[in-house]
């Protein structure tokens, strides 16, 4: 049976790929996507734990990845930001009552809390927290310094004029087997382990 008949075209000519070919393309794409989800995606942030640990001792926030001197991209440790938070709820509630910013449930209005924390600043000499808009001291608020690992890392491809050239460098090395020695402990990432690869 010809592909035309299998496709239901009954001999009609088509300018594009046959329905059967489109079906196979879709099936291959699905197989690769499933393989990606199960085997490859979990490896995306392989250096996260080690890089976070290194940052804890050396404060090194980035890991530049290169192949024989050609930069591919870099991982960057995700850091927390400086924030202000309610450290003494009772004191802050009293402050909110004074400002008539209390909901019926006797809790500071969320909009008030958000606005006050956004305007909060700390006096570097006294450590007092104050409202940068009104200058008055804000009771019950504490300053939480940032700059600490938040448990994530961010990957950035090396780019040139808006193009991710690092990805091209990486995949060229991957296809020619130059990365095989680094992937011996993760055989599922070797080229021959990918769907459609030759068994040789």
UniProtKB/TrEMBL annotation:
Name the UniProt record assigns to this protein: Phage tail protein
Supply the source organism for this entry. Streptomyces galilaeus
